[in-house]
Amino acid sequence: MTPVELSRTVLRAVRRAVDAGELVAPVPERAQVAPPGPGGRGDYATNVALQLARPAGRPPQEVARILRSHLADAEGVAGVDITGPGFLNITLDGGGEQALVVEILRRGARYGVVDEPTGELVQLHHPREVRAAVTAQAVARILRSQGALVRTTCEDEPDPAWAAVLGVSVDAHGTPAAPAPLKVNVRPVPAAQDPVPLGRDAARWALLHPASHDHPRITADHLVQRETNPLFRVRYAHARTRALSGNAAALGFTSAPGDVQDNATHLVDALAAYPHTLATAARHRAPDRLARHLVTIADVVLVFQHTVLPLGDEKPSAAHCARLALAEAAGAVLAGGLSLLGIDAPEHL
Predict the structure, then answer these.
(1) Which DSSP symbol is given to 28?
(2) What is the pTM of this model?
(3) How far is CA 19 from the centre of its chain?
(4) Which of 112, 263, 279, 339 is most buried, by the most CB atoms less than 10 A from its CB?
């Protein structure tokens, strides 16, 4: 069961509880699921009981107990525990990792992207400042990935160099005549130096990786190809996943989702959390959350890569095929995330 399928399962449990009269509350449009945090257990956790507690007029723990009874017998669910103030921790039947890899490989760069529009209309308005312009564009892409309709506007006409070098574009400049129902002013801490000399990818990363309230570092460090540079690590990890596919083909095997027979928990958890990260980045208008999660995935990939190919005289096995499929899934997520930030994901570095 993939995170998307589990989210639907949670919503069906809520709907059954409401239809049975056990809960009196509106059924939410979405149920966020993610790997459990500290103190959690199982494969995934959801805070839907805490979300429903106030409208239902009941303590979160009581809501969680009601929902657990409807979740525990759902297909694909092996067990449900309640932790903390009312988090539902869900353990899946075997095959969850394989289903996740299959889903990512099927969706490719669109993994985590919402297929249907939500009807949310957002206007992102920003001053004529380079970091604000780049941030607004990245936020617009992330919001659109989550089904929102977005219009970007700038207080004045942007610098032509921003478009030519950084790929910045806005839908309109000046005071808009008819703003969208939800207007968001995008005003991150301005860049103290001109990022254009860094080029598109490094400049965008330098502006988007720090949180909006932090001062961005506009330095040549973003151009160096070494592990101290987070942008390099993300792009290198993507390139390594592509190289692994080529190396495997030379050894006579291809990817096939299955049992990796190895400790890939950290990578699976990071990939499973990606849709939740996208949704959170959209909700908080925070592309830095996406950038930091890509670094997390990349760091795990760079450790995991050493288990993918056979060593010495070892023959390719089903486990190698499964590990390659997991690596390719990670590469697809890295490419999709970089694309939302407006940054290229080269196949070779």
Answers:
(1) P
(2) 0.79
(3) 33
(4) 112
